[in-house]
Amino acid sequence: MKKLWDRKFFLFVLGIAVPIMVQNAITNFVALLDNIMIGRIGTEQMSGASHLRQNILHHQDAPLQRAALRKDAGEYPFHG
Question: Which of 19, 34, 44, 75 has the most CB atoms around its CB within 10 Å?
Answer without folding.
Answer: 34
